[in-house]
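Exercise 7. Given the encoded structure of a 269-residue chain, write a plausible sequence.
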């Protein structure tokens, strides 16, 4: 699909192709910032189209908002170092996040450098996840959002944070359709991906750090994609969504149980 999506389309053919695309994938053409179908030179360009941001109100009270349009595949607390791919299928945070960046992770790596992959167990996965925490009273949480071909395919900042590190992991380009996620173990670890880390997740100061405000646009996808959010938060965090729920950019993902008065600012991306 990659090379086809990048083919230059004759101007006269564009409305016809994009009309069928809109029908097949149930796009909302009235949300498009530029509704002139003739202005999109390729399928890829149309796929990464902008929308009218006033149609995506941003929740200002929620600690974390959705970074994109899509459907929630899974969400919850990282347990024993495991992230749920779909119900009943998990993968380790270490295999997904890859290269250790924090001082705690470097210590973890040093302690386990003599172990082979065959000896890796869930206790190691748990130790890895624990080493990511900045505050011992907190926990790691995750939310996985699937973007179908008809969805708006730009992704935005889920909160106010600082990108201090970006890692690009070379991998496969397996489909991330939920049907595939239901049977292919470690799908998101096998696939090519980019990981963005907040300041607490790195040990060497980066002079090119990027400050992001809530809902700032900082990337886009080329075709059917998935966003995996992994973040630290107080133990009283509760999700406002459940697996299978449709979700829009800026919609609240979670909140804090107000019975326990913990500052929202304690949440670290």
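Solution.
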């Amino acid at each position: 699909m990659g090379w086809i999506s990048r083919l230059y389309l004759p101007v006269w053919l564009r409305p016809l192709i994009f009309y069928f695309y809109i029908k097949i994938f149930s796009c909302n053409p009235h949300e498009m910032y530029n509704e002139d179908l003739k202005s999109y030179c390729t399928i890829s360009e149309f796929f990464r189209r902008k929308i009218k941001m006033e149609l995506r109100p941003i929740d200002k009270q929620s600690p974390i908002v959705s970074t994109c349009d899509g459907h929630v595949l899974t969400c919850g607390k990282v347990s024993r170092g495991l992230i749920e791919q779909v119900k009943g299928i998990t993968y380790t945070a270490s295999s997904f996040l890859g290269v250790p960046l924090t001082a705690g992770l470097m210590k973890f790596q040093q302690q386990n450098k003599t172990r082979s992959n065959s000896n890796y167990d869930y206790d190691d996965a748990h130790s890895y996840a624990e080493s990511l925490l900045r505050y011992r009273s907190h926990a790691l949480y995750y939310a996985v959002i699937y973007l179908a071909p008809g969805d708006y395919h730009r992704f935005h900042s889920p909160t106010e944070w600082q990108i201090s590190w970006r890692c690009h992991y070379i991998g496969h380009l397996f489909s991330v359709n939920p049907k595939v996620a239901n049977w292919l173990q470690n799908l998101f670890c096998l696939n090519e991906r980019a990981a963005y880390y907040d300041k607490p997740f790195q040990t060497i100061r980066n002079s090119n750090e990027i400050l992001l405000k809530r809902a700032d646009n900082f990337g886009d996808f080329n075709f059917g994609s998935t966003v995996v959010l992994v973040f630290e938060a107080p133990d009283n965090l509760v999700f406002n969504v459940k697996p299978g729920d449709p979700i829009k950019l800026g919609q609240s993902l979670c909140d804090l149980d107000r019975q326990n008065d913990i500052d929202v600012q304690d949440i670290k991306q």
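Remark. DSSP finds eight helices and 13 strands in the chain. Students should compare their own answers with the one above.
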